[in-house]
Amino acid sequence: MVTNPSDYVEAFGKAGASGFTFHIEVARDNWKELIQNIKAKGMRPGVSLKPGTPVEDVFPLVEAETPVELVLVMTVEPGFGGQKFMPEMMDKVRTLRKKYQSLDIEVDGGLGPSTIDAAASAGANCIVAGSSVFGAPDPGQVISALRKSVEASQIKS
Question: Which residues cross the membrane (predicted)?
Answer without folding.
Answer: none
